[in-house]
Amino acid sequence: MTADLGSFITALPKAELHLHIEGSLEPELMFALAERNGITIPYRSVEEVRAAYAFSNLQDFLDIYYAGAAVLQTRADFHDLATAYFDRAAADGVIHAEIMFDPQTHTERGVAFAIVIEGLLSAMAQAEARHGMTTRLILCFLRHLSEEAAFATLAEAEPWLEHITAVGLDSSELGHPPAKFARVFAAARAKGLKITAHAGEEGPPAYVWEVLDIIGTDRIDHGNRALEDAALVERLRTADMTLTVCPLSNLKLCVVDDLANHPIDRMLAAGLKATLNSDDPAYFGGTIADNYRAVAQARGLDRAALATLARNSFTGSFLPHETIASHLATLDRFLAQEA
Ligand code: HPA
Ligand SMILES: [Zn+2]
Question: pTM of this prediction?
Answer without folding.
Answer: 0.98
